Amino acid sequence: MSQQCIARITEKAKELGKELTKDEVQSIYDNLITLRKNKKNIMSQADDDLLAKEAIKIFQEGKIRAARLKRNTLRNIEIRANLNKKIKDIGGNPYKALQGILLGSARDKKLDSIDAETRTIALDLQTMLIRGLEQEDLLQVAQSGAMDKQVAMAMHPKPGMTKEQIAKELPQEAIKIAEVLRKVQKYSLKRKNRAGAYISEIVNYITRQTHDPALLRDAGFDKWYNDIYPKLDKRTFDDLVPRKDGKNVEVEFLRNVYNSLVSGIHKKTDAEYTIDGLKDPVSSFTGKANLAKKLSESRVLHFVDGEAAYTYSKKYSRSNLFESVVDGLTHDGRSIGLMENLGTNPRAMFEKILDDIDAEAKKDPKLAPSSQKFRKRLLGQFSNVDNSVNAIGASQGVFYGADLATIGSGWRMIQEMALLGASVISSMTDLASKAAQLSSTTDRGFFHSFGIGMRDTLQAFKTEKEKKGYLRRTIIAAEATTGNMISRYGPDDFGPGFISKMTAVFYKLNLMRYHNHSQKSGAVAVYMFDGAEAVGQKWADVDANFKNTLKTYGISENELKLFRGLDMKGEDGNNYLYPDLAEDIPDDVLDAYIRQQKGTLNITENIRLSTKDRLRTKLGTMYVDLADSAIPTPGGRERYIMNAGLQKGTVTGEAIRTLMQLKGFPITMVTKGLTRQYYRSGFMGVMQMITGMTAMGYVAMTAKDLLRGREPKEIFSDDYMKSAKVLKMSMLQGGGMGIFGDYLFGEFNRYGQSFTQTLAGPTFGTADDLASMFSKFVRGENVAKDAVRIAINNTPFANLFYTRAAMEYMFLHGMMEHLNPGYLRRMEKRLQKDYGQEYFFPPSRFARETIIEKAID
To answer: Measured between alpha carbons, how far is residue 451 from residues 437, 523, 718 in Å?
Structure first.
């Protein structure tokens, strides 16, 4: 052992205020020798001076990490104690109390849930990105991906390139986009570190790479390895320890990375895993280990430059750079939300809290028999919050390399593009849901609130330039650019790929993207306006409904006072309490609040920043959660109901997702809409909401009838049974079934499908139709009509509300009549008998001579 190197390590440690024992020095030195043996083309291990220098560097980093580990350990202990105390304070069933903390509880009037906060932080990060790009007028360029290669090169230039060379060789637009990305990623990185992570800033970091598991599986490990290895910087393999089995350590490391990417474990957001799926030493370390070993456990894939990263991405990802960045920010938002609430290893913390509850439940004879059922449910719900339920799971390639997850989600997206062409008409009922919520959470009456919804509908027709400004600072507005409309109706199937891109186009064409954006942003604008007014008022003068709403999300009088004196003026001239205003609170005002809350005089900059994070998230959570309730959008509780906590990509997981397709709205209407309204305003509030939504359900049905060329259904008919039937349909359409009600009373049901078959969802309904058609074919019956109907009902874009009637009169009616003579007359008679309706232009007279029929004749 080199005495000179040992002496240098010991001497430097003393300078840093650390007395190392002989064993500690020996451990550091031995690990350095091991690491040196694994490196290539570097100085020899005999160079004691350089070895000592590296040892000092490792020691300095290790000292910081050890301090963080100690801090995080104490913080995790505090979090666990606080959570257990909160559960006891809530009282009642402790499992339900924990569920309320995780998902929110309208009964306990606590809606600042971990689930809502993770969604809020992700949207906040996305909003920062979008606003930054918009301010440079580069959002559309970034979204298009036209400059992805140049942006990647600006963020990670070739070694040796100076700033002057970059400015000369790359477009200014690409450089500006790169600057915006760096700014947002830097904020995200610092907030993760404040939450307990230990991630060094990488100067040339581009983004969290998105990898398509199907593309990786198709290539296989060997081809993937040969493609990626030459593009990786040798930093990727720094500090890898030689394997005892003699296998190439770099190959085996990349094999582990490949397996984690294919399995989807890298998508977990519980802070336990790094980008490549390996465990993070800060969050997963549970026992003693020497410094060098702990420091070698966390790594990422470093590419040699931006061009190499771009080339890899083009081959193994279906996302462009903007989509990859958004995906990374979504992952970061979840991780931050989980770590801030549950410590550095959220899943482990959640399981420990469950263990604590289980120990108490054993003493309660009423609770003990149900403890395992509650535990299983809560773990399933947590999997929806940390997103581990959407890892690929046990899936393997089953059809030309495509796995069950890819096939299942692709088929469901196709079905929704075929069925939801008129969803924006059905979503008129959102106006009543929104009005009911605004009237119970602010000082506005129901009809005033309904008028706000109508105004926001017109807002959707404003130009993109007019929409920018104050509405863009509403966190929820990020959904208009990055959001997934599918999640309103069923399982979250959105992702990269051609079908997903077509789905995004579909939701533009059917106007749902604009409807959601205008209604949610309009609702948030109301709450931000009221928030700004409350800041300037005495607490006693704040409207009682809005005051209760603030309390529901844990926002106190003292926290509102922090925003006094800040510039809250929006671009429309009104004042708004924006979440990002938390960054502008003066230090002296913030310090007084911190001293009051924490009782400490030792206020560091890190404490200030963490406090601002908390205030920003509190306001944002209130806005986002209220918007998701007013315009019913599934959260963790609803997603769990739709997937039962079953892994994506497994047979059972895909089956339950398919069964629950189109049921997102009715489930959310019950869990968020009616339930919250009951706990806010009681039975009368619920009845007001149902009445309003029933009325809007009738309006939605009437609009669809008019678009199909039919007279409105008579709700005050002389025939009592017909009126009752129409009223029931209006109630189901508007108050409990929504889009699913649209499907329930749609084409499938009119063609004779049973309620049970319809309830099972469109996929199982289609399967039943195919089986029925096959039976007819075997019996020698004509199945042409059935084949046409099945094809049309499963064709994407064929059911857009503004093209369906024209297609029916020009094509479909005539074809059905030709295949089944007398069909149109029978359809008209059935419509008259069931609902007393007639066509303005009866198809039997106006749709007989079609282009197709003439061509056939």
So the answer is: 13, 12, 32
Give a yes or no: residue 717 inside a domain.
Answer: yes
Model confidence pLDDT, tens digit, residues 365-412: 889 999 999 999 999 999 999 988 887 655 555 665 667 888 888 888
Give residue 131's domain range: 76-386
Of 364, 386, 408, the domain-final residue = 386
Per cent of the chain over pLDDT 90 is 35
194 and 272 in a single domain? The answer is: yes
pLDDT band (50, 70, 90) for residue 331: confident
Q: Which residues contact 30 (CB under 8 A, 6 or more apart)?
A: none
Between residues 820 and 563, which one has the greater pLDDT?
563
What pLDDT, in 10s, does the model give residues 677-694? Answer: 999 999 888 888 888 888
Mean pLDDT value across the chain: 81
Residue 778 one-letter amino acid = V
CA dihedral 517, 696, 433, 742 (to 10 degrees): -70
**Residue 41 is assigned to a structural domain of this protein:** no
Residue 54 has pLDDT above 70, yes or no: no
What's the rounded Cα separation, in Å, for the pair 111 and 91? 16
This prediction has a pTM of 0.85
Residues 590 and 604: their CA atoms lie apart, in Å, by 12
Contacts 24+ apart (CB under 8 A), 142-145: 142/177, 142/321, 142/322, 143/320, 143/322, 143/481, 144/320, 145/320, 145/321, 145/322
Give me the pLDDT at residue 751, please: 33
Residue for token digits 């609430």?
Answer: 341
Which secondary structure element, helix H or strand E, spans residue 855, and what is its range?
A: helix 851-856
Extract the runs of DSSP E, i.e. beta strands, from 666-768.
none
Max avg pLDDT among 74-78, 404-408, 612-616, 753-757: 612-616
Which helix H or strand E contains 399, and what residues bound it? strand 397-399
279: helix, coil or strand?
Answer: strand
State whether 497 and 530 are in the same domain: yes
**Domain tally, the chain:** 3
Q: What angle do CA 852, 742, 440 make, to 5 degrees?
A: 150
Give residue-wise pLDDT tens across range 263-295.
Answer: 665 444 443 333 333 343 333 334 333 322 333
Residue 464's pLDDT band (boundaries 50, 70, 90)? low
If asked whether residues 658 and 744 sit together in one domain, one would say no
- 67 within some domain: no
Q: Which backbone phi and psi does 562 adopt, to 5 degrees?
A: -60, -25
Using an 8 Å Cβ cutoff, are 610 and 94 in contact? no
The 3-state DSSP class for residue 120 equals: helix
Phi-psi region at 696: left, alpha or beta (left = phi > 0; alpha = psi -120 to 50) = alpha
Q: Tell me whether residue 38 is in a domain.
A: no
Q: Residue 832: its pLDDT value, please?
A: 85
Per the structure block, which two tokens stand in for 93? 């069933």
Give 513's Cβ-side CA count (13 Å radius).
Answer: 15
* 443 and 581, same domain (yes or no): yes
Domain end marker among 644, 665, 686: 665
Residue 115: predicted pLDDT: 96
At residue 723, what are phi and psi to the nearest 5 degrees?
-60, -40
Determine the Cα–Cα distance for residues 429 and 427; give it in Å rounded to an integer: 5
Task: Give 714's contacts (C-beta < 8 A, 6+ positions apart).
Answer: 722, 723, 726, 835, 836, 837
Q: List CB contacts of 89: < 8 A, sequence separation 6 or more.
A: none
